Amino acid sequence: MTLYVSKSASVALTAEKLKAIFKEQDADGNGLLTREELRKAFEKLGSRYPDWRVRRSLSHADTDGDGSISLDELDELVKYVIKLGYKVARSAISI
């Protein structure tokens, strides 16, 4: 389910909601978000170019250079995503 909608009918996602969206994509529960898990999260957020967004997010948040986002790096990822201005439909606020 894509959460992203036009800016006129939406509100900004909070950091906590963004963290929850990313954490729910951690399919194997190992505390690391792989490229594929990040891609799924950006698809859920409605990114038009999720693969490109994954590359950019890794360059912003993958501080140890291992090619994934750890729980320690999640805050940096969330800061980056907030700067991008992703929004959620008012009807989906209870996510």
TrEMBL record:
InterPro entries: EF-hand-dom_pair (IPR011992), EF_Hand_1_Ca_BS (IPR018247), EF_hand_dom (IPR002048)
Keywords: Calcium
Pfam families, alphabetized: EF-hand_7
UniProt GO molecular function: calcium ion binding
Lineage: superkingdom: Eukaryota
Residue ranges annotated for the EF-hand domain, each copy included: 13-48, 53-84
Listed SUPFAM superfamilies: EF-hand
Xref: SMART domains: EFh
Cited CDD domains: EFh
Protein name: EF-hand domain-containing protein
Organism annotation: Dipteronia sinensis
